[in-house]
Amino acid sequence: MENLIFGGGGTPFHSGGKEVPSDPIFGGLDTTSGALSYLGEAKQGISHRNHIYPQDAHPGQETALMVNVGDSVRADHLFAYYTTDGTDPCGSRGKAIQGFTVSFTRESSKWDPLIWGYREEWKGIIPPQADGTKVRYIIEAWDSLGDKSFFADNNASDSLQATRFSYLVDDLDTPTWAQDAIIYHLLIDRFYPGDETPGWLRPGSPWGFYGGTLQGIMDKLPYLADLGVTCLWLSPMWESPSHHGYDIVDYTVIAQRYGGNRKFQQLVEAAHSLGLRIILDFVANHSSDQHPFFLAAQTDRESPYGHWYCFTRWPEEYRSFFGVKWLPQWNLDYEPTRKYIIDQAVWWVKEYGIDGYRLDYVLGPSHDFWVDFRQAVKEVNPETLLIGEVVHGADVIRSYEGRLDGCLDFLLAQKIHQVFASTILGVEALDSFLERQERHFSKHFVLPTFLDNHDMNRFLWMARGDKRRLKLAALCQFTLPQPPIIYYGTEVGLSQERNIWTSDGYGHHVYARMPMLWGEAQDQDLLEYYRHLCAIRRENSVLRRGRRITLHLDAAKNTYAYALQGRGHADGEKEIVVIINSSEDVRSITVSLVPPGFPENTVLQDLIDGQSYKVRKSHLKLTLNPLQGVILTRAKA
């Protein structure tokens, strides 16, 4: 998203004896003060926050609803009112007016120093439901000595105003192709103008148009196929007044400056013919203030579109994306608006055969909206991939299991930056993070990885231009099981001239969105390295589907090794061992190979440079240059 708000640094926090500055993309959530504020808010009042178990409900499973009651609310009764027919639930004091009831039991009462008071945990059980059932519910709490009710999470006093929660009961799995994907993320305006175009336009500022087109992407499909990517993620392409397109004016018309609808159809067909899938960047939370529905609503108070936006004081005051006036927020709790937005997304899947969506600012619309969105899209094509942008902590990201197929892994991106680019953390922090994250999320929930994107400083700039660090980070990224994303230009050395975060606290993201490098301007050595990584990943399914095991970790020397082992027979025959020297010194490293276990004298070969190493007494000894990594597998006989 064109994010003008996230960022501004933040207060440093301490980790392992080091002060670690906040990554601006999290807007302070990853600082001590930000985390305390968020946790304190979550523990006050009646808080549910979509905390259910299992997170992704299947037919025949009961579903537990978990609720926190803070010390600011006295409650001795909790009930949920739920429906299974898509209607809104309604009820009061334990009696359902619309739907069914669930009574909660108090699970525990705990003293919490963060709020300096007691908080209670309550649990209610919704019985098993049939495949395809949408369960929609609200949660009420009250004290029998009083006459006031509180509904989670907005603390409304009546069920008509209560926050609606929902989940979908189904057996749908994440599309099988997602785990094998190598995704290339490009901004259409900044990628390529086309072979028949003289060159880039020269706008008066970086915020202007540089002239990239859909024809330009078509002309470079051979380049992308040769690079080895399997999926293209395109920036918003609809009519919009900006270069980035996150302020959409018309969801049905592709901007003429890009080539229009017919050209996009040709691009989809050409990409599919080369085995490349297409993911679009869809914005459900807000539109441009030039959208005709918003103009109608702002001009005429009695307009049919008056309820489509969230006016707080018509016509000049309304909810918008982080207060940015030219990004007014849709009222997605209003059924006609919700249907319109979802219908637009469904149409592109049905009519153009696109393969998925990267969903912008998922935190804006409710979980209830995303349940409807997912159900509608999957009915057209269950293999449509839905990946969310959720810039938050792991607990919130996990709450989208069952609503989406996965979320972009901002948490890993931050850790990789801190270990390989800024070097404020060592490899032990990365290993600890990976171990815990692998246990936290379901293996069916996809977490695509990335080193940089359009809303943050480029990795190469953060690494002060050191391409060895970029290579090492990419080696790590491409040898982890989740699908990797390459941000356009990273593979050829495209960087930036200045920090996107300025002293005014705002993000000037255009500095990380400069035009793609072509021809002699490309770093051919780096490009060949990325081609090699893509080929290695495609040819070794254990990298995409294997189980990661830590083999070696030396925090003092900043060396690290892990193995990827197959979960099944097909993958298990070809273990991969990754060894990393993240220090600025030559390191001699001894790695124990139990597990995965290699017979004596087994020869392991580096898939990067072809060098061979021999296993002795279940150990491997080797010497790595500064900032060098190897990807080892059994040498061919």
Q: Give the helix tally.
A: 16
Q: So, the CATH homologous superfamily of the largest domain?
A: Glycosidases
Beta-strand proportion: 25-35%
Overall structural class, as computed from helix and strand content, comes to alpha+beta
Give a short account of the largest sheet.
8 strands, parallel
Q: Report the strand count.
A: 34
Please report the first level of CATH classification, the CATH class of the largest domain: Alpha Beta
Major beta sheet, strand line-up: 24-23-22-19-16-15-26-25
CATH T-level fold name of the largest domain: TIM Barrel
Q: Which second-level CATH architecture of the largest domain applies? A: Alpha-Beta Barrel
Globular, elongated, flat, extended or rod-shaped: what is the shape? globular
Helix content range of the residues, please?
10-25%
Q: How would you state the average pLDDT, rounded?
A: 93
Radius of gyration: 26 Å
| Count of all domains | 4
Q: How far is the first residue's CA from the last residue's CA? A: 50 Å
The low-pLDDT segments are 2-22
